[in-house]
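Student:
Attend to each token:
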Amino acid sequence: MSEQRIYYLDAVRSFCMLFGIFVHTASLIPDVKPYDLIGITSSLFRMSTFFLISGYFATMLFLRRGTGGFLKSRLIALGVPLAVCLILLNPGSNYLVYIYHNGFVGINTFFFGDIPPDPKGPMVWHLHLWFLFSLMIYVALTPACLWLIRHGNLDHLYENLDQRFGGAVLILLAALTGAYQILVRTSFTFVFKEFLPPNPLEWILWTTMAYIPFFFLGLLAFKSKAFFDRIHRISLPALTCSAALLIVLSQTNGLNGGNLEKALYHFTRGFTNLCVIGLILSLFQYVITGPSRPLRFVSESVYTVYLFHYLVIYALATAIEPYITNDDVLFIFVSLSTIVIGLAIHHGIIKNSRWLMFLFNGRLVRPVS
């Protein structure tokens, strides 16, 4: 594929990250319809699409900079903001999550005292930053994965299969992805239950393994024009299969059911993710035909918006909770305000300091005068 920038992919990546703000704003109103459907919808496309696009762009950067330059630049760009946000943002975010869902406690009590066990709210040390751990692992694996694609002739293998079987190959890949999800989840459950005690890296390891096929397919999409074209087509048979699986799954207990129901859940999620990616990419390719100022404004700041959004969501919600009792108003106000504040933080503060750009975006650039 060409090394030219593909602007609609920037738009898709920005959309996936901004959609995450609505997902996490919905945590203010847990287990209430229709807000619980936002997270369910997200699980069918958001991070898989994001990682596939990340794989595509990773190949582009690898070819430009070589192994050493690629690894150095990407690990810095990901690792520095990760470390900074884990230290500066996440402790405050977790504190705000706690007091919003459980009532006020002092900062000293929260961090150094005793709080009741099993508090309400989505509190975990990494919060939304888990994806940076995954990306760093994928970046480290990129040279080996590209070597495998090249020496295994996987791009040519796919092209031959596509010529012979057409769109059925996408359904086959989706089925393999679903089967892989069952294998990974089963293996992890067995290993962590039988051999390893609970540890803070369990979620990160599981999600990293779960999403690596999509990053790998992003690498393949850059190397194989046939696959790139295939995932930009709306496949009605694939989407019909996905809909059928989702209907069957809706009649079960899903992750709360037995082993067969859990397997169906993981298979359906893996299968559907790959099928929906084609729908999303084709729509954005049709709508976004070139560069634009609004797209650039959002895409260059979306990283900052995403890093800060958890803190902003719960700071806003904690401040306005006494005054807004309607869930719909709360959700709309907090989610949209979070995006606006995040854009303002980037363009008004971060972008104007080369050191803040380095700390929060991992890039040393000249400040905008």
Summary: The longest helix spans residues 46-88.
